[in-house]
Amino acid sequence: MRCPMCGAELPEGARVCDMCGARASFGAPNREANIRMDFSEAPEEAESRREREKTAVGPLGSLIRIRIAAIILSILAIIVGFALMGKINSNSSLSDMENFLVYARIYSIVVGVTGLILSVLSYLVLHDMVRAEPLFDKVCTFLIIQMVLEAVEFFWDASIVSLAKSVISILFSYNYCMALRDLCLPDCGREADQWSLCWKLMVAEMIAAFVVGLAAVFRLTNLQTISDVGPALRSYQFLLVIVYVLALVMTIVELVFLNNTKKALSKF
């Protein structure tokens, strides 16, 4: 007769293993039956955790509304971007190009300020979710740094600022997705998996946007003659619109995942 836990040889009639202290089984070996669930969640702890999770339902609803606003504004930005593209071509005069640059600058400032306002609103909502999941505190920290860098970029359009903003955006996105994933665990496993997937999709979107941005800069810095300026500006605006389209698609995916998470947490 052997111990079902450690496999040690037991004397006939033994009820406890002298080696590991496990109870001897007189039927078929069943290792799982002898394992004590010392690390299982107590009912009181589970109820307390679910109560904390419920506090995130309201903020999740607010976050969904912010994302809907972001989608609407992204669609408007794409429409205006295409409209700007129609104002310039290879036959455009120097005056037309100067006007285009003014309009494009106003366009980028309006989009940037609007995005900054949405980020402030998102911060206020995410800060309320710290009670449900402590990791949101770190998310809020990265979001503040990101907003500061975006504000600095309005006045100092330097490569180092853009690089720093990209790094912070990656850190923010990772912690944001992981905080929502942890909020869903252990009761909402499917929704938790969605946030793991969302992080991968966000990385793919940021890489694609970075490549498109490099292509836009390369197009502007490789002009041969003055006649190339018009088509180059048009290409730059087109690539900029592509970046907004990528962000729009990612926001829609995030909106779907947020709605699924809110529904799942509302059941408890």
Quick structural gist:
The protein is mostly helical and 268 residues long. 72% of the residues lie in helices and 0% in strands.
Give an overview in words:
There is one protein chain. The protein is mainly alpha-helical and 268 residues long. About 6% of the residues have low confidence. It has 2 domains: 40 residues, no CATH class; 223 residues.
**Fraction of residues in H or I helices:** over 70%
Number of strands: 0
The chain-level mean pLDDT equals 81
Topology pattern, helix = H, strand = E: HHHHHHH
Low-confidence stretches: 26-40
Query: Oligomer, anyone?
Result: single chain
The Cα radius of gyration reads 28 Å
- Termini distance? 47 Å
Profile the largest sheet: none
Structural class: mainly alpha
> Quick one: overall form?
elongated
The tally of structural domains comes to 2
Counting DSSP H or I runs of 4 or more residues, the number of helices is 7
Content of β-strand: under 5%
Secondary-structure map with pairings?
Blueprint: H1 43-54, H2 57-85, H3 94-128, H4 136-155, H5 159-184, H6 189-220, H7 229-266
Properties at a glance:
single chain, 7 helices
